[in-house]
Write a structure and sequence with these properties.
By secondary structure, the chain is an alpha+beta fold. A five-stranded antiparallel beta sheet has the order 2-1-5-4-3. 44% of the residues lie in helices and 19% in strands. α6 packs across α7.
Length: 185
């Protein structure tokens, strides 16, 4: 091993964010920060499906469809989403990804970073569909775009949006997102 290899390993192991290498959405390598964020030891995650880190299997399946196109198009993907710890507790995290196999199957091999947002963004009790709607609203998508992505009508998206506004006591989407991100309105 060269001195440069030692530095790369040092950077990976001690990065202040969670880093993970996946192959077809299976963890192949992760740093201690990533494992600790989810309440695991690194060796407990190696060769495990990413599905165990999602609040539900449905969300694991759906986020795949959301992320593939941006990875194919510009080899980058990022969002903020709710994930699940080993103990079942939910938390917000920022996710950024880069494909190493962009042209054919961008998820065949990818590198991801995860940042725990729980100190500044508390999880509100939301259904799976409400979490999906909030994620897309946070990315600035319209009801029509969200409906297309989730295979529901724009009117259904609007109904969810109205319920979310009421649930959070917000008068508009910006206020809703501000409330959900625990930032001052």
């Amino acid at each position: 091993m060269t001195a440069q290899d030692d530095l790369h390993l040092l950077a990976f192991q001690h990065a202040p964010v969670g880093l993970v290498v996946t192959e077809s959405r299976v963890v192949r390598a992760c740093n201690p920060c990533f494992a600790e964020m989810f309440g695991y030891r690194s060796d407990e995650l190696i060769d495990r499906s990413f599905a165990i880190l999602y609040p539900s299997f449905e969300e694991f399946v759906r986020i795949r469809d959301v992320g593939v196109e941006p990875l194919k198009k510009n080899n980058r993907y990022s969002d903020e989403r709710i994930m699940a710890r080993k103990d079942g507790s939910l938390f917000w995290c920022r996710v950024r990804g880069h494909s190493l196999t962009r042209d054919d199957d961008p998820l065949r091999r990818a590198v991801w970073s995860f940042s725990d947002l729980s100190p500044v963004r508390q999880v509100l009790a939301l259904s799976v569909r409400e979490r999906q709607i909030v994620m897309h609203l946070g990315e600035g998508r319209t009801s029509k775009e969200i409906g297309r992505m989730l295979s529901i009508s724009p009117r259904t998206v609007e109904a969810y949006r109205a319920r979310l506004l009421k649930k959070c006591g917000a008068s508009n989407v910006a206020e809703l997102l501000s409330h959900l991100s625990s930032m001052p309105g």
